[in-house]
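Class, study these two lines:
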Amino acid sequence: MADYTEEDKQKVLAQLSKKTWKIPELAKILKMDKKVVKKIVQDLINEGVAGYWSSGSTTYVATKEYIEELEKKRAEG
């Protein structure tokens, strides 16, 4: 059972589609509890909508589409 609203989920999803985020940063700009944001992100990952992306030293989260764009740019150099 989720302890967040569909509106909360949509806010997180909207931000994840714009750029990569570390969960604490995402929680801060959304003014939401970090645990709630982490739960929403995990649910989005489980649904196949979001995913993790690593810069090599740091792990971020974003939508699958945004991650695909980043990987394409990375491959192109």
Q: What stands out?
A: The CA atoms of residues 20 and 30 lie 14 Å apart. Helices lie at 6-16, 23-30, 34-46, 64-76. The radius of gyration is 12 Å.
